[in-house]
Amino acid sequence: MYRYALVIALLGVIFNRETTAQITITSAQFPEAGDTLVVASDNLPESSAVPRGGENQEWMLGNLQAPFATRVLFKNAAEGAGAASFPEADLVAELAEGLEGYYKIEDGAFIYLGSYGEDPLEFGLELAVNFGEGLIERKAPLKFGDEFESSSSAEVRFSADDLPQEVLDELPVVPDSLKIIIETTRSVKVDGWGTMFIPGGSYDVLREKRTESREVKLEARIGFLPWFDITDLIPENDFLGNLDAVSYHFMNDVEKEPIAEFYLNGDESELLRVLYKGADFITNVKGINHLKPGVYAFPNPAIVNVRFEFTNLPAGDYDLRIYNILANEVWAERYYISGSKTVKADISNLRKGTYLYSLIDSKGKTLGTRRLVVLRP
After folding, report:
1. pLDDT values of the chain reduced to their tens digit, one per residue, 377 residues
2. Which of 32, 53, 128, 268 satisfies CB 3.0 to 4.6 Å to 191 for a cystine?
3. Domain, as residue range, for 297
4. Is residue 105 domain-resident?
5. Residue 264: which of 238, 278, 285, 245 has the closest Cα?
6. Kind of pairing between the strands at 177-198 and 54-60
């Protein structure tokens, strides 16, 4: 009896795999005004392997982890603070706190037109970065084997008088005007299809490979002299210079969120983060930039390893400490953090039970205390 049951089960697996069909993405999967996309981010992926391309694949990603998922609301472009700078836009979405993204839908393409809000160089300005014709974010109809490319550029000029004095003091020259020049080229090829399993469900998907090259320059002008490049004179700014990146996007023909997105460096030697469709069991927040400065532990309960997600912290040294129920410190580590960061900690030496973890800044102020539950098999 067991033998027959096993044979039937195996035939069922084979039959289901062979009857999996390719899908076609249509414009029905483009975001519309009123849509809210829910996306989680694993900023410390367990494996450096990227799901391979090809036909009729099965991609198992059930080990992805995130403490919360962010909600991105799309609205009519006219409702955006920077709407006047993007007259062709149909939609606007808050990409981060104080930063809007503008989009249009045209000729079967969902196109990113640019952003309005905090400047990318973090000079403290509010700027509109308009890419003109824009970059194609999604295309429809989209099927296995399709390829497309888009290129665009943006130029943003502003007066040196608009900069805070502390920024001017750090510049190697005293210009009258400055401008940011951004040139981007994106190539996309649909090189795989199959079924993807993520926390919360399984989906039929197409795999897109995106290759993107970006060059960002900062130029200055004094009086009537020609513009000159000062990019190399601005130290430690990750936005300036040349950037090559590769990403893999897995799209479904029903859901509007990408099912998963893998982001790598240019030579694909390092997996930086994985975004994936948020599930009901993940706490939803409006956006990570709306969270208070602090730290979150996940998974919680934890067994051997736990990840700590630090959010929106001013640059500096921070102590993370774990205490037992008697308020005795049982684990501690110091980290330098600027903004947000994810780290993994080994807690295999802790006994089963309930603990508290606290984050303390360099002045000794406790920024928050939360509960951590440790389980043992």
Report:
1. 333 333 333 334 333 444 457 999 999 999 999 999 999 988 887 665 788 999 999 999 988 888 888 889 999 999 999 999 999 999 999 987 788 999 999 999 999 999 999 887 777 889 999 999 999 999 999 999 999 999 999 999 989 888 877 777 777 778 899 999 999 999 999 999 999 999 889 999 999 999 999 999 999 999 888 999 988 877 777 788 899 999 999 999 999 999 999 998 878 888 888 999 987 666 665 555 566 788 888 888 888 889 898 988 888 899 999 999 888 999 999 999 888 888 989 999 999 999 999 999 999 999 889 999 998 87
2. 53
3. 292-374
4. yes
5. 245
6. parallel
Domain assignment of residue 168, yes or no? yes
Pair 195, 233: CB distance under 8 Å: no
pTM confidence score: 0.83
Tell me: do 40 and 183 sit in the same domain: yes
Any domain includes 1: no
Q: How many CB atoms lie within 10 A of CB 354?
A: 11
- Residue 179 shares a structural domain with residue 40: yes
Q: What domain count does the chain have?
A: 2
Within a domain: 13: no
Out of 284, 318, 343, a domain closes at 284
